Amino acid sequence: MTLLAVEGLTKRFGGVLAAKSVSFALDEGEMLAIIGPNGAGKSTTFNMVGGQLRPDGGSVMLAGKDVTGLPSRALCRMGVGRTFQVAQTFLSFSVLGNVQMALLAHHGQTRQLLSDAAVMHRDAALALLDRVGMAAQAGRPIGELAYGDVKRVELAIALAAAPRLLLMDEPTAGMAPSERTALMALVAGIARAERIGVLFTEHDMDAVFAHADRILVLVRGEIIARGSPEEVRADPEVQRVYLGHSGTRAAGRARRPVHG
Ligand SMILES: Nc1ncnc2c1ncn2[C@@H]1O[C@H](COP(=O)(O)OP(=O)(O)OP(=O)(O)O)[C@@H](O)[C@H]1O
């Protein structure tokens, strides 16, 4: 089923047309990547879908409902989640405590007494941590974790809001190459099992070509190519304007797992 349908999204910043009539659709359980050179309009498009930017034109439909221009808080209540970096202030809290707080926020219980909050949603938080492979580290302060593990906890925090659509802006930025593919494999597994649609931007071509179901290539605000990783990899225009020599090598190197 179509989860997200974007039609003719347009955004102008002064003289710059950052997104020019961008249209695409995303199904439940699908991993859709937006790639393109710096300044192509990836973040702009992403932020219009996530409610951080109001489009100048076009529409965003979520499961058949028009959500164009709604702020991110409203979208969040409708099932649009986003991964955010763990705030500095929460680094001293335990991994479990952070996920419990996310669950409290999702259930509108942020005014709970701290003593109650410590026991609330404990099992659900542990289940989420188990889902991202972090249950064994539940008691540790987040500030002590390796960077790749922090990213897993951020994913558990995003999942606490039970999103139908998850937006991930450069989820693997700053990670070591081996950690990047592992994180994207984890996200893809969860997305498919739980029918969550994932829209992500990413500069790491190995991660994109190994884990996206479909790819949109944005150049100067316009989609110049779209399709499966195989189709996008083979597109001569994409190779010319974006992938170049090293990117094409990465795209060819990445082997997609076979999904049943
Ligand atoms: N708030 C803003 N004010 C003015 N211009 C902006 C603003 N945000 C983006 N732009 C311009 O819009 C264009 C698209 O930017 P955007 O950040 O969406 O690209 P991007 O593909 O995400 O780039 P990167 O890969 O570098 O993150 C660029 O020319 C950028 O300078």
Automatic annotation (TrEMBL):
GO MF terms held by the record: ATP binding; ATP hydrolysis activity; L-isoleucine transmembrane transporter activity; L-phenylalanine transmembrane transporter activity; L-valine transmembrane transporter activity
Source species, domain of life: Bacteria
Annotated organism of origin: Neoroseomonas lacus
Domain ABC transporter intervals: 4-245
One Gene Ontology CC term in the entry: plasma membrane
One protein family per Pfam: ABC_tran
Name used for this protein in its record: ABC transporter ATP-binding protein
Protein's GO biological process: D-alanine transmembrane transport; L-alanine transport; L-isoleucine import across plasma membrane; L-valine import across plasma membrane
Swiss-Prot/TrEMBL keywords: ATP-binding, Nucleotide-binding, Transport
SUPFAM superfamilies per the UniProt record, alphabetical: P-loop containing nucleoside triphosphate hydrolases
Record keyword Nucleotide-binding present: yes
